[in-house]
Amino acid sequence: MNKSTRNRALVGTALALAVSTVLTACGGGSENTSSSDAKAEGSPSAKAAADVKNPLVTTFDGGLYVLDGESLEVAGTIELPGFNRVNPAGDDSHVVVSTDSGFRVLDAVGAALTDIEYEGAKPGHVVRHAGKTVLFTDGTGEVNVFDPADLASGKKPEGRTYASAEAHHGVAIELENGELLSTLGTEEKRTGALVLDEDGKEIKRAENCPGVHGEAAAKGEAIAVGCEDGVLIYKDGEFTKVDAPDDYGRIGNQAGSDASTVLLGDYKTDKEAELERPTRISLIDTETNKLRLVDLGTSYSFRSLARGPHGEALVLGTDGALHVIDPKTGKVEKEIPVVDEWQEPLDWQQARPTVFVRDHTAYVSEPSKRKLYAVDIESGETLKSVTLPKSTNELSGVVAGH
């Protein structure tokens, strides 16, 4: 991507937001700083003086911080009302922001929102795989697929679209051969997934995955979606169901790695709980179709799962440590103390410590202290830490490649 052509205008006109819709998910800060001059919604209140290096993006109540990925210092502040979520766009410059009105594209290197937007109620999952980025809008059931390299033009990329039969909290992913896997469901019930060929013709369907939620890809392009009784795997043109050892064994959040055939998932068994705080994680081997449970001795949240550069399974526990697990054996190889002990809040939108991994570094937030840490996964050393102006919520950054 040629950053020397970066001369895009910062967004300065107000964006009319839709009625405040609660974003659907699979999880703020302090009061906004007042100003005598009203700021346009989505406008930057502090412009980056130069291109931001390896940017990170974190949300706070009322906006976004764009951080220098090396110093962790705030390089730009963007005001954006509402509950916002952030995900890598799939290149080395952009981040996708889920807002009240749809998906918006942030030029993180330039610390400015672009004019690229995918409107729709309840923007949900953002998936990167095989050189394509896929957006699923829960309120409409619409799927948008694009090449993240096309974001460099500053214009909305041309891409593929698919309309689900009914709107639901779903997810979709495009495979290397052009097949599109997308979930099946309604607002009341989710049942499984289907696969379309490059021409949009349905070629496979599986409806034995109740409560389907989340996705992850493993080495060898095994794609898994979570169920309330295990996981559903699509590999080599066929669906395979891997059952949980319990009648209700929900795996709703997963993390995959191109370096490992084993997927990391959460694991919950109490269907009636207002909020279950599990201590066990699941490891799903996509070669053997076997599922292993590992008890960490500490609970975690849906923002606790990540993968290391060599396929390590990483879990940020409520004990404050980053647990590094061998995905093949299930052995906890080390526990890296990072933050104080914490408890997952009842409301999934409320802030809690969060982990985001890029290369060999795990970035961990501690909202109660307004802190952000950069931790070397292999040595366990804290490389950098910073205290931010406001308490933060979500954490992400640019990630080139898949």
Overview of the structural elements:
0% of the residues lie in helices and 44% in strands. The protein has a five-stranded antiparallel β-sheet with strand order 1-4-3-2-34, with no helix packed on it. The protein is built from no helices and 34 strands. It has a single domain, classed as Methylamine Dehydrogenase, Chain H (7 Propeller). With 402 residues, the protein is mostly beta strands. The chain is globular, with a radius of gyration of 20 Å.
List the helices and strands and how they pair.
Blueprint: E1 44-46, E2 56-60, E3 63-67, E4 74-79, E5 85-88, E6 94-98, E7 102-107, E8 112-119, E9 123-129, E10 132-137, E11 142-146, E12 160-163, E13 172-174, E14 180-185, E15 190-196, E16 202-206, E17 213-218, E18 222-227, E19 229-235, E20 238-243, E21 249-250, E22 254-255, E23 262-265, E24 280-285, E25 290-295, E26 305-307, E27 313-316, E28 321-325, E29 332-337, E30 355-358, E31 361-366, E32 371-376, E33 382-387, E34 392-397
Antiparallel strand pairs: 1-4, 2-3, 2-34, 3-4, 5-6, 6-7, 7-8, 9-10, 10-11, 11-12, 13-14, 14-15, 15-16, 17-18, 18-19, 19-20, 22-23, 23-24, 24-25, 26-27, 27-28, 28-29, 30-31, 31-32, 32-33
Outline, from the CA principal axes? globular
- Percent helix among the residues? under 10%
Secondary structural class: mainly beta
Give the total of beta strands: 34
- Give the C-alpha Rg: 20 Å
CATH architecture: 7 Propeller
Largest sheet: 5 strands, antiparallel
Strands ordered across the widest β-sheet = 1-4-3-2-34
CATH superfamily: YVTN repeat-like/Quinoprotein amine dehydrogenase
Number of helices: 0
Determine the mean pLDDT: 90
N→C terminal distance: 16 Å
Oligomer: single chain
Beta content: 35-45%
Low-pLDDT sequence parts: 1-40
CATH class: Mainly Beta
Q: Please name the CATH topology.
A: Methylamine Dehydrogenase, Chain H
The structural domain count equals 1
